[in-house]
């Protein structure tokens, strides 16, 4: 029984099949921290620019839909 546990732990430690997921999660965490830093340093000016852009796009889409007579 003890040999089976040792064998399981050794195989688990040597298995690299989930390594790609871990690397992806680490990259996503880093990108998230960079975004948080940029937003905190911009003091709301970046957020206002994004809101204005999305508002402009939604207005243009609304006008396109209205013009197409749906």
What does this structure look like?
The structure is a single chain. By secondary structure, the protein is an all-alpha fold. It has a domain at 43-70. It is 86% helix and 0% strand. The protein has helices spanning 2-14, 19-42, 45-67. The model has no long low-confidence stretch (mean pLDDT 82).
Quick overview of this protein structure:
The chain has helices spanning 2-14, 19-42, 45-67. It has 70 residues and is mainly α.
| Spans where pLDDT lies below 50 across 5 or more residues | none
- Give me the count of strands: 0
Helical residues, percent: over 70%
Mean pLDDT: 82
Tell me the span between the first and last alpha carbons: 70 Å
SSE string, helix = H, strand = E?
Answer: HHH
Portion of residues in beta strands equals under 5%
| Cα Rg | 25 Å
Content-based structural category: mainly alpha
Task: Note the total helix count.
Answer: 3
Shape: elongated
User: What summary fits the major beta sheet?
Assistant: none
Key terms:
70 residues, mainly alpha, 3 helices, 86% helix
SSE blueprint and pairings:
Layout (H helix, E strand, L loop, with lengths): L1 H13 L4 H24 L2 H23 L3
């Amino acid at each position: 029984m003890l040999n089976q546990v040792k064998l399981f732990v050794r195989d688990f430690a040597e298995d690299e099949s989930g390594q790609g997921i871990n690397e992806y999660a680490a990259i996503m965490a880093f990108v998230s921290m960079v975004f948080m830093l940029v937003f905190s340093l911009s003091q709301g000016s970046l957020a206002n620019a994004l809101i204005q852009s999305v508002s402009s796009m939604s207005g243009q889409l609304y006008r396109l839909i209205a013009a197409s007579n749906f």
